[in-house]
């Protein structure tokens, strides 16, 4: 009893100590008080052995335990936690600042002060407060920038409302970007009726490779093969030993339970209720049954197959679960060679293998069984080679899912769900398992935690019968009995999209029937989801499928309109066509804030800052203009649109407190900017100078102190005086309007105040989206961009050019004073028919930076260009300092950036990127939106010397394997099947260039396939009027010189063939040669191991290795017959011309020679002429009839003679054409 009492006392003491310890650790203040009491009672000298155990410094803060793997350079906003916010709120609300001293006190007057509102802090007080809360002063430099963002009222103070509003908007945007996901299904599903199923549901869908085909197997054994475009190809019927054919509808004793594709040996295994497995060979275009394993002890109900991809002919396993809850494993030792032992036999058909005699095939296959894994039939099975485990499921609530080891080396994991599991899927990289049940719920599990799922997602109205995990999208696809597909986000556990498949069998409220495996997810390159319902098949095309393999980073998901720099906050603002605005830190390239749906769904077309750099102005394609607080993204004003037309320019005039906007409305709109609290500002079109533009205004620019220039599509350029709103000078008047065009607009538009206005002012496509622009003859190019040289414009009455305009690639230089305004011009792009959409200059106007529609940036030295008036217009280019490729498509804006670390160029393009470059050298710093941040002060963090196209992706393409090329070819074939009109990428050319560079050659040699004739344009500085046609038809290389743009083939019929082969044979020969070239280009080199990997003696790939047929050449020692020698021919003097005109006729000696016939003038109606015509008419048909069939009978010299003659006769025909 004493022992028991001692133990009880010890346990009570331990429990008390444990509860006291837990209480102290949970209450920091009490723990601190206890420490002080202990120190007072027991000084350190009395307790030398007691030392306060300190945790490692890196683990003192629990937050560091969670965030030890994150980036060390975290932003301040990311470091602030909830308890930090509580402390900051208390400090702001309880802060009582000192009064502001206005005048110091004197002996006669007391000091004059101004009270400060409580809760407001200046910069130093704000930095001290934040550093005190965070316990560090490492963010002092960043707090200077943050204070400028928070000080929205520009009074030098920040309160709690401004600070919390900024953080709220920032966290809201971060949450939106984190939860934002692309919906996978953006197209209507394709639905096809499987007539061959004979009204029976489909049991399984499998995908066969090489080439890709979808195979559906019905419950009664109908095998249907489909193209990737879901076009039906062929079908087969599984033969049964005793089919019931009493009626028209065939009935079988067996039902198909499952099927699976075995990729390494190109076979499909099909299981049925007849307790058998049939193996079909699908390596050829004709599928046939090769093996039939029958008399299994139980019914195989579900399959899974595994093989070593690195060694396909090594051990592979076919796993199947039966209706008694056991798992069977068939191990094939050499599956590529053969699956079973093949005896010598004379009868045809599938080889039947009795299950009891499987030991006789022990050289090729072995069998193993795992008993009693589930209490009832197994519905699905999956093998995990990494852990050598098997996942299986059934409808039992006690053993719904079991993860068991094949050798039973570990205890199985058992998952229990009330209504069992109908389907599951597992992903190793994500380490999750997803199950679907009849209780309408989808559950996400940690495969090692069986007690409780990670998440339960509900939303289906009926039972879930299929689930699939898409790793790239981080999404789960689920399919329910009512033919509804739902998409779930794995991270957020939320439903992203619901698609109702309208199968004919599921309408009118009827519950359709489904097979056991009604869903199949096909990966890249097809990226489709296939579902079945009764005897129907549906295809859902996936959109974006995860992270692209390309290493090229993008700034936005759509094309950019511009990128502008805020020098006050040292940030970059970008806008795109998806109506999103992003703010970026220029020193690191990181995103600060993003405004989504700034103009709803309209494209953003222009952006600018006011003079204080605190407000951001944006205009959209529908005419709306909005004013934003740059620091926190708050919408301050909404300006009334003048018309539903694109806004191309905005200028906020701070002195007059007005906003001037122009665009495709052709009007100068004014908005009052005096009232900061006025949310909706009406438009005023009472511009004193009048609305002079007769066409769409495309660009504008401002030059201090009061010059504003506008330019329109018709080429008109007007310089305005902003103070008086009157015209200062009209540099060029617009082109007169076309009467026919006005009539068309009048028919399709309306008349307002005597003006003809079309119904849709945005009928013309966006000019930023074009790749090239060709100016027609007699047409004035539209003015794409105007730029003031502000340092030159500051000098009044200057004779130098102060304005630059870009018009179809031509840069024109204008002087605002004097009688002669246009001082110079030159064409800037390197290629023809390009335009300059982006221009900027440095602060001193030393250099001009231009960006064209090909994505090139050029740096021009303009310090001495057009600085003095001259009698003649300057047509020479200024010195080109640098030029480099910056983007893949048109550059829409260039911005000069002056930073304390140096001078840079900011570029934006329609290739969805904004990039930063050094000023003159063009060194690539980085793309806004890339994963790795840069530091402008540290050159080692820049991307230079790499470029946006540094060959991570290019080398991958160059070193691509044969399998990559074949898969790319299959993808092209699939696209061809999906689209009725398929054009290969190499044949996709601009229509205008094709009209200029290609000549229709059907009139030259009958059809386009007969020869490869291309017209190549000379790229000399002064274009010649002659073009060069190079004919490469397999016979000769012929050069014809033609006048450019005046070449006409006329209406004459082409000459008939002068060879003994005939026109039809020539066409066929040219077609075969072209097909051989195309096949060699597509397939590349031929690998014999690849062609014979299945033991075939011949294959289509081997046929491609035949050498290309070469054209016969005329031998130097050509043997001549006696008749040729008698006619004066010798082997040394035979020329092409003589051989073509050689006469082989057997005419009488009185008949003149061919040369005499050409020189002889025959009189119409004479006897000689009539006789010659008849003889030629009689000889021509006989020769043409006998020429083709008698080729094999000709002797070798005669055949060589005629083939050589034919080649040169065809050459002559081409030359004459």
UniProtKB/TrEMBL annotation:
Biased composition (Polar residues): 1178-1217
Residue numbers spanned by region Disordered: 942-998, 1068-1088, 1146-1217
Keyword Repeat in annotation: yes
InterPro entries, per database record: EF-hand-dom_pair, EF_Hand_1_Ca_BS, EF_hand_dom, Quino_amine_DH_bsu, WD-EF-hand_domain, WD40/YVTN_repeat-like_dom_sf, WD40_repeat_CS, WD40_repeat_dom_sf
N-terminal signal peptide: none
GO MF annotations in UniProt: calcium ion binding
Keywords recorded for this protein, A-Z: Calcium, Repeat, WD repeat
Amino acid composition bias (Basic and acidic residues), ranges on this chain: 954-977, 985-998, 1068-1082
Repeat (WD) residue spans along the chain: 421-446, 457-498, 597-638, 690-730, 829-863, 884-927
Transmembrane residue ranges: none
Domain EF-hand: 138-173
Keyword Calcium in record: yes
Name of this chain's protein: EF-hand domain-containing protein
Native species: Potamilus streckersoni
